Amino acid sequence: MFSLQGKVAVVTGGVSGIGLAVVERFRAAGAVVVVGDVADGADIATDVAHEDQVAALLDATVERHGRLDVLVNNAGIGLDARPLDEESTARMLRLFRVNTLGVLYGTKHAARVMSGDGVIVNVGSLASELAWSGNAAYNVSKAGVASLTRTAAVELADRGIRVNAVQPSMIETPMVAQDSPEVRAERAFVATTSPQRRTGTAAEVAAAVHFLASDDCAYLTGQVLTLDGGLTAGPSSLFLDGLA
Q: Does domain 8-175+199-233 fall into CATH 3.40.50.1000?
């Protein structure tokens, strides 16, 4: 069950963090995985903010391996927190180009080269539903991922391509490793408010991506799976006791 034997997959942003965990899990499940990333260690250097590079990544994968079965649009960036009235067009566009247009480019060109029965899994963020103060640009860019996922699922269903997404809460990755006031505040919020009272791991996100990518989930498309330790289901008993 949930075998990826014989599948060819591409993972963007696969050198570290969630992307690396997905690569390792896919390979363990039998898939051939091509990593596209701007960082050292990528199989093919790829900046997802540029459509031509995304197209070249997917074309090269098909040329080398004969097919593309799974695309994981994982690459993403964050910026330091800034109040809404200090937000700039340049910051908005930088995040939008990577976090949102990168997903659009990947989806567009995966659909072009997939022969049917393909799967696209996008990595979004809980920030698309639960807004974090000072992160307007990031929140908006990730909200676009959720909307793109649903739209692509509807449009590509006739081609046999499924499109789903995961949107994690705070996950222990290099992106949140810095010791900033914003990271400390978010970590404390998750630790006290979510029912599980902890942050998630990259391996836990990779497990959900693996589930969505497998043929066992052939009837599942257009869904955005939230991974948040129960945060959006309701507050923890610790949080409620504190209020009382």
A: no
